[in-house]
Design goal:
This protein has helices at residues 2-24, 51-73, 83-91, 98-114, 126-136, 139-152, 199-202, 206-214, 219-237, 256-264, 277-280, 284-338, and strands spanning 157-163, 169-175, 186-192. By secondary structure, it is mainly alpha-helical.
Length: 346
């Protein structure tokens, strides 16, 4: 019985230490997400985009996405994450959870507002203009491709100009709240083609809205995003002037690939020149997604291990209790058999 009590005491001590570590690793929820301010006044884009449109599009639609998201994540692990982390986690590998639509729409709309500005429009210049010329043939060809993406997006969605992992520009379209970030690409320009983006100004004439949009594009902001995206690509891929025969290795230990790939199904960045390079080097958001998945799996493994320890502790306690009871019964039986008048004692 003494051994059984000692074992149970040790088990309780272990459980208390595990609980203590969980308390130390607890992350308090941050404050609720707040609606980012517009980069200009609501009437700054008139007459091309009216103040009334901004009052409804920004003041009601964008705000509703934010408020809905705060309500959806309250009391969940998502509450301690950044907005970008919530979006990536709830994308759920192409099977988005209910929180994704609101998180992505908050990000998409903020990106959209910043893509425009008063007294803007025209054409890009510098390295961005050179990249458009390189990848589309001309600015007019890009413009046609971008408008076509917006016009052919059935129902609600977005048109995007993005860079892929090789640094090449491409035009894409996405439905509803979906965006290039969840596909590992870096957008530098977007156009909202949800009907509420233009209905108050041009009713259902989406082509007229798209023409007006090009008169509002803030190419300085787009060029700034492009420069950041190119720098990120060079930082990850290595300098463009480094020959393929002299690859730059990724900045992680030699064992990280094996650990991530075989333990968690996450394939880290491969060295330049590797055939899988373009498919494995992720953007900053992809790295956050990988970290989130690793953390989630490590947490699950720890919880599973804790449960197994609990099961083993209970089993051991039962064994000790059974052994103690059996020993007590055996001692009593032996005493009876040895008592005067018994067969053993006579």
């Amino acid at each position: 019985m003494t051994q059984s009590r000692a074992f149970i005491g040790q088990t309780i001590a272990v459980a208390r230490r595990v609980a203590g570590r969980r308390m130390l690793s607890y992350t308090a929820p941050r404050a609720a997400f707040e609606l980012p301010p517009l980069p200009y006044a609501m009437d700054a884009l008139e007459p091309k985009m009216s103040k009334t449109t901004f009052e409804f599009h920004y003041g009601k639609h964008h705000a509703a996405y934010l408020n809905n998201l705060n309500g959806q994540i309250k009391g969940k692990d998502l509450e301690s994450m950044s907005l970008e982390e919530v979006m990536l986690k709830t994308w759920n590998g192409g099977k988005p959870t209910p929180e994704f639509n609101n998180a992505a729409q908050v990000i998409n709309h903020t990106f959209f507002w910043e893509s425009m500005g008063p007294n803007k429009g025209g054409e890009p210049s510098g390295k961005l203009a050179d990249a458009i010329q390189r990848d589309f043939g001309s600015f007019d060809a890009f413009k046609d491709a971008f408008k076509t993406a917006g016009a052919t997006q059935f129902g609600s969605g977005w048109a995007w100009l993005s860079t892929d992992k090789s640094g090449k520009l491409e035009v894409t379209k996405t439905p509803n709240a979906e965006n290039p970030w969840v596909h590992g690409k870096t957008p530098i320009l977007t156009m909202d083609v949800w009907e509420h983006a233009y209905y108050l100004d041009v009713q259902n004439r989406r082509p007229d809205y798209m023409t007006t949009f090009f008169d509002l594009i803030n190419w300085d902001k787009v060029a700034e995003r492009y420069a950041a995206a190119v720098k990120q690509t060079l930082d990850v891929h290595g300098r463009a002037d480094i020959a393929e025969s002299k690859p730059r290795l990724p900045k992680h230990p030699w064992w990280a690939g094996t650990f991530c790939w075989y333990s968690y199904g996450v394939k880290p960045a491969a060295p330049r020149g590797n055939p899988d390079y373009a498919a494995t080097v992720g953007s900053k958001l992809e790295m956050k997604d990988m970290e989130a998945r690793l953390t989630e799996k490590l947490t699950k493994n720890k919880e599973d291990l804790t449960k197994e320890i609990g099961k083993v502790a209970i089993s051991h306690a039962k064994i000790f209790a059974g052994a103690t009871a059996l020993g007590t019964f055996g001692a009593a039986l032996l005493a009876i058999l040895r008592s005067p008048g018994s067969f053993v004692g006579s």
